[in-house]
Amino acid sequence: MKISLIKIAVIAALPVATAGCANKSDQIAASFVSPTMYSGLSCRQLATEAQSVANRAAQAAAAQDKKADNDALAAGVATVLFWPALFMIKGDGAQAGEVARLKGEMQAIENANMQKNCNIRFRR
């Protein structure tokens, strides 16, 4: 009987423990950035800006994914072994905001690219 009560407690605590966890970068929606911000750039300048934003976005996504992995690990440890580990869960913060902003910038650059018929190819 004890074992099943422990299992029930662990299962019940898991959603609570993971609720405050940071999201993976692919789960973060883009913030709106107006394409008019890039309307004055030439196609060459747009391509350069796209590469720069893509590099920063990749770095921000990697940092966010690491944060999400650390939170998930802390939640797992807290649920199974040591409840004070719940205090190690940081959740989304400035890093998630940076990911959202950079995703928005990429969308704005893509929109400006289409408006100017620059034919810049973007990888997904």
TrEMBL record:
<feature type="signal peptide">
    <location>
        <begin position="1"/>
        <end position="19"/>
    </location>
</feature>
<keyword id="KW-0449">Lipoprotein</keyword>
<keyword id="KW-0732">Signal</keyword>
<protein>
    <submittedName>
        <fullName>Lipoprotein</fullName>
    </submittedName>
</protein>
